[in-house]
């Protein structure tokens, strides 16, 4: 039995530990000691250390150090218990992978089922911190298979807690809600009730099952305040404030956040404080209080650069900074803020995609494993038939033929299912789920290939980017269903005008891009104008509302912008912003020295618009 009994406090690992402390803090509040009771005094000392491991880490480490002086005197069960606590100590001090190895050794040992389950759930927790979603799902699935046979109430609560936390972090909110509801029914402890309420509110809000004024928010905050859990109450407040901002009620969001802020600052939990600053910056900006918005955005960025990599709040704060600098004419700062905003936004989208693909991959592997089990069962049946051949050859031959046909049919079925699954997952990765056109990642990959080929053959390529005008207003006033209708119809109209070798992709929320090979700037502008007219004449009543639908277009080509995708899209994007600045619902072409960058978005005069 191997045990790493030395602690390493490398700054890098400590930083990672601090960055993910919110996730661990929640878990540690609930992982109560559940080991079996032994007469040994060492077992009592181990249990005492287990109890204080989250509330007093230094005392916990000193207790373990004292026990390690008597290693030869410990029984097998005591050594395994010590190994589990050592794994926790390593992970808490930032050596997460070393801690996971300790937990895995326990799973391969003759430890009790309860200790093995604790080790398995701890692995899930650490993999969530490491963002190793695929392996985390596998261990969580294994742990949850035992939930119906768990007799220890603390372990059952721990299982539901880890499941709800992990699924919320993974973005699988329906599963998170299911386990949060079970957790509420399994515990009466105020602290655990508070956490269960916070997890339930988070999952239901992500599923659009709660509005900003839902009574559940008040009930959950009351539950957490009663348990003196300020951090959990603050997370609930942040969730509610985000819904107020989504409903365009910034005053309500500010009122809610500022009422909770003093309590949160007393606790000093930096990550949630950073989230509060980011939400307040957006709320103040929406109200036109630019200085307040700027100050809060600066504070949010300062905190979130150091704390956990919460890309959503960072995206929100950087966007406010970009808008502030741009409105005050500070072009250099605006560009820096925009770059940070774009990087945070991309990181956020990439993380969501990674989580989704991990979940789908594990689901696919589960299906494949079931198919392999079925195939093995068929093979076992075939062996039995071969044994019966000695007793009755004629009857066995007939049964063998039937069995072989079943095996062949099963193999064909498995192959077809595998092919369908692979095709389905490939489509999920390459196509945008809402509009059924290329996703940003796949569009980018295909565009690089197209431009490389065109450059080798000296063929002109044009780029058309367009953005739905006032989309946020449509989405907020008429609902997400209408907004989705707009995006689908915009994609469909674009696809109808595209040739078979044109590339069409959704590169942003309401932003689309078309690459037109063997097309000059004039031809691309004509195509963009046709699309603009088609969008403006769409019969919007089919969406349930009658409203005006327009888009602003920017066109660039490789003659002016070169064969680099970034430059081509950047110039088309600038031309599109010129179209917006000059009144929207129009097409602008990028011309060197006439289309300025993001830092200079002065509205065009009518004569300049005509020239473009």
TrEMBL record:
Residues 459-592 form the GGDEF domain. CDD domains: GGDEF (cd01949). Its EC number is 2.7.7.65. It comes from the Bacteria. It is an enzyme of class 2 (transferase). It catalyses: 2 GTP = 3',3'-c-di-GMP + 2 diphosphate. Its cofactor is Mg(2+). Pfam families: GGDEF. GO terms for molecular function: diguanylate cyclase activity. PROSITE patterns: GGDEF. NCBIfam families: GGDEF. This is diguanylate cyclase.
